Amino acid sequence: MTVLVGPNNTGKSIALLVIYSALPKGNPGLSFGLLRTVRRGLEGRGDLLAELRAISFEKPPELNELPLLIRELLQKCLNVTIEFYAMGFMRQLGRCVGGLPTELRRGGSEVGTSLITVTNDLPHWRIELLIHESGAGISTQGPSLEEVWKKVNWQDWSDIFDPRDFDVSLEPVTRLARMLASAFFSGFLGETQYLPAARSGLMQSHKVLAGSLVRHAAHRDPPDLNAPAVTGIVADFLAKMIELDPEATGSFSDHAARLEQEILGGLIALEPDGPGGYPEPVYRSPGGEFPLARTSSMVSELAPVVLFLRHVLRRGDLLMIEEPEAHLHPQAQVAFAKTLVRLVNSGLRVAITTHSEFFLQQLNNAVIASGVREDASDEIGLDRETRLRPESVAAYLFKPDGERGTEVVELPVDPQVGIPESSFSEVSEYLYEQTVALDNRIGDGPQE
């Protein structure tokens, strides 16, 4: 679990947005780019092809068995991979902010150059996105072939390599290049889903928004350039809601049912015949069945969480949630925090931003409980599923830093304290001192 805390307008949501943009979601041009690189590298090289045909590809080859020029060609393919990834990251970042990456800068020309760096360990690679007033540029540092070769899942070899294809001279090298490209992204596990802020409003107006999207998708006329646009984050969220399959089953259906029982007091279901023919979310309670537009903000806030858990998310996926405490009573915040801990313990990766002391304290209690005897923590309502090991949590504080903007500090996750967040205690201390001062002046009476 990754937790981002700090005051408003310090960049927590932007940080999540950058992470979301950096996670690869498939690039249809990559396979073509690899094939083109292989073809250009082997064109007119009959001698090299003869050496290649002499290698047995019935089992995974050792790297040193390949001719030097083939190894150099595969290194070029890795360079193509990181270039495609870097350009895709820059485009995705612009799409998610609803404009150009330059719009991430704040303060106009006085800001200078902003730098976003994405790095990966084993295999080691790095990209740098330089954002300045007039545009953005990107640089890459690719991994070595030797490192990536060690990360290839050779167990897939027999499924990918068919000896009947060996008469096609480019096929073995092309498939090797694709396996290397997959190993390049071996650190990115599962899919990523993003639940943006203001999702309560999005869900309550979901029927209108979705119907409008469906109608516009069917038009062949040029789009209305004066129509308001949504950010890529919101567009992805709405698209996922439209594409929900009532028959699909995720890995966390039991968690969805428990969330409905403990917090919502009713069920979130998908009616098959919504606007445009896609399923419409509804709330079923003892008092009847209601569209989300006629439910409380708490129900519409948690409805997409329930639906994603039931129909979309699988173990190893990453769920990003902005302000999971939004529109929830403190008691519901505590219950939802426990739900997220159970999900982490069940194999879902979670990243959140939060402004809630109640939410953070429940996470801290889950961390502290992991160091207490099980029978003792069971007695106070923290069973095995709602305890969280400190090493399973990463926390970062975003705090204003004068003219520099925001300083991001990694917070220690103490087994006996949890995640320290001084700004919450500062607010509590301020309010307490103000209350004491008022108590001392109650006898003074109103001013005449």
Q: What is the topology?
A:
Elements: E1 2-5, H1 12-22, H2 28-42, H3 46-53, H4 68-97, E2 114-120, E3 125-132, E4 135-141, H5 145-151, H6 157-160, H7 171-184, E5 192-195, H8 199-204, H9 206-217, H10 232-243, H11 253-264, E6 267-271, E7 280-285, E8 288-291, H12 297-311, E9 318-322, H13 330-345, E10 349-354, H14 357-369, H15 374-379, E11 394-400, E12 406-411, H16 422-441
Parallel strand pairs: 1-10, 1-11, 5-9, 9-10
Antiparallel strand pairs: 2-3, 3-4, 6-7, 7-8, 11-12
Helix pairs in contact: 1-4, 2-4, 2-7, 4-7, 11-12, 11-13, 13-14
Task: Explain how this protein is built.
By secondary structure, the protein is α/β, with parallel strands linked by helices. Helix content is 45%, strand content 15%. The chain has a domain at 24-184. It has 16 helices and 12 strands. The strands form 3 sheets. Strands 5-9-10-1-11-12 form a 6-stranded mixed sheet, sandwiched between helices. Strands 2-3-4 form a 3-stranded antiparallel sheet, with helices on one face. A hairpin with a 5-residue loop joins β11 (394-400) and β12. α2 (28-42) packs across α7, α4 (68-97) packs across α7 and α11 (253-264) runs antiparallel to α13 (330-345). The longest helix is centred in the first third of the chain and has 30 residues, at 68-97. The radius of gyration is 26 Å and the shape is globular. The chain starts with a strand and ends in a 7-residue tail after the last helix.
